Amino acid sequence: MLATHTDIETAIAEIGDGASIMIGGFGVPGTPFRLLDELCRQGQKRLTLIKNDANEDGMGVDHLLANGQVEKLIVSHIGLNSNAIESMNSGRVQVELCPQGILAERIRNAGAGLFGFLTDIGIDTALAKDKPRIEVDGRSLLLEKPLRADFALLHADTSDKLGNLVYAAAARNFNPLMAMAAKRVIVEVENLVEAGELSPESIHTAAPFVDRIVLLDELTEDYGVRRR
Amino acid sequence: MSGDVKLRMIRRVAAEIEAGMTVNLGIGLPTRVIDHVDRGLQVCLHSENGIAGVGPTLAYEDADRNLIDAGGAYVSRQPGTSFFDSAVSFALVRGGRLDLSVLGAFEVSMKGDLANWMIPGLFTPGVGGGMELAQKAQRVVIMMTHRDRQGRSKIVRECSLPITASACVDRIYTDLAVIDIVDGALQLREIAEEVSAEDVIAATDAPLQLPDHELPTF
């Protein structure tokens, strides 16, 4: 099914309590802050969030944590968000830590319709503790399972009206992978153009992966350059 | 560690980087090496968030809001830069395309085990891309203070902290010395200015092999 254009409230209202949600972004670039702000406003509960990181204090995922909407985080690190670390330590939020490339590959694996892969990453570490091992050609390897989600919330620089997406610079990161791995893919975009305006050779996510397009009327300050 | 010592360390690590290499600089002190790599050298800096060909860092007023490195610094594009997604980024790492990975550490053992991702009960931010970088780069060098804040050696016989990867470290750069790990033994290669081999031995909680010639300084 081709993507439909919708307003931000309608797009996020499709999400119910208990949903699993992939969220694009690595730091600020590629994070759909407006979709996250709307999710915070609507207040869906018991969410499982799959994201590279938990943003920084006071932005994005941090608002959902502060609002008590998050049951579980599946991430590669949360070092820049003291509230996420505190939520994990107090047991309020369950946190599954995953090596970054393995997180990406688990998402890609699900998106490609596969059922897991074998790796030696982390094999001598505490993260390997509960993972099944499979021997191949005399070598013991870890089984990593695919990660699927009910929804993906993404940010792209430009979409055409069919849902072909282009990401800016380092804002690509997890977005194209998550676009493949969720049942319903909602993307917020900075620019919307007619079909045919994007070069077919330079499209990063092909239209069939995208379900809902939300054109942003403005970018909040979360999207800007952060002076530390 | 004084600013002067830190700068000498950064410059010494920058000298590791040779023309033609693909290199990843880890979060923290290693990313600062970027601004000391000879501009005339053709090297490709990789960043986990999906960049090959990372250019020098930019001032806030010149920054592109969509162009950061994995540590969050605003970096630049240069001729030949490419962007890709996180799965491709780690295919590059696991596929063995990184010639060099420079990482920080809490502890390094004489066998080359690296601990840099958690301190139980104190600090569990997650590992990011550290395990892949430590396990799969062709060469792994560590940049760290020789001792922790309590004055304890960060070079140890066996890591007491949860490891990031085993037997992965080739060389350690500290504020006191340059030490290679060869077949499970620590070999002292260079010492910092105004530091003696005896100082390094006293600060290191594992046996050190010394060369039979005078040690170069950095």
> Roughly how many Å apart are the termini of chain B?
15 Å
Q: Given the helix and strand composition of chain A, which structural class is it?
A: alpha/beta
Strand content of chain B: 15-25%
Q: Give the domain tally of chain B.
A: 1
Largest interface: A-B, 52 and 44 residues
Low-confidence stretches of chain A are: none
Number of strands of chain A: 12
- Going by CATH, what is the homologous superfamily of chain B? Glutaconate Coenzyme A-transferase
The CATH class assignment of chain A is Alpha Beta
Report the CATH topology name of chain B.
Glutaconate Coenzyme A-transferase
CATH topology of chain A: Glutaconate Coenzyme A-transferase
What spatial form of chain B do the alpha-carbon principal axes imply? globular
Strand percentage of chain A lies at 25-35%
Structural class of chain B: alpha/beta
Biggest sheet of chain B, open or closed, and with what strands and sense? 10 strands, mixed
What does this structure look like?
The complex is a heterodimer of chains A (228) and B (218). Chain A has a single domain (18-216), classed as Glutaconate Coenzyme A-transferase (3-Layer(aba) Sandwich), CATH 3.40.1080.10. Chain A is α/β, with parallel strands linked by helices. Chain A has helices spanning 8-13, 33-42, 61-66, 82-89, 100-111, 175-181, and strands spanning 4-5, 20-23, 47-50, 70-75, 94-97, 117-119, 133-136, 139-144, 149-160, 165-166, 182-193, 212-215. In chain A, helix 3 links the parallel strand 3 and strand 4. Chain A is 21% helix and 28% strand. In chain A, 50% of the residues are buried. With 218 residues, chain B is an alpha/beta fold. Chain B has a single domain (3-209), classed as Glutaconate Coenzyme A-transferase. Chain B is 16% helix and 23% strand. Chain B has helices at 3-14, 86-94, 130-136, 197-203; strands spanning 22-25, 44-47, 51-52, 55-57, 75-76, 82-83, 100-103, 107-109, 114-115, 140-143, 155-156, 171-173, 177-182, 185-191, 208-209. In chain B, strands 6-3-2-1-7-10-12-13-14-15 form a 10-stranded mixed beta sheet, sandwiched between helices. Chain B has a 3-stranded mixed beta sheet with strand order 9-8-11, with no helix packed on it. In chain B, helix 4 links the parallel strand 14 (185-191) and strand 15. The model of chain B has no long low-confidence stretch (mean pLDDT 95). The chains are: A alpha/beta (228), B alpha/beta (218).
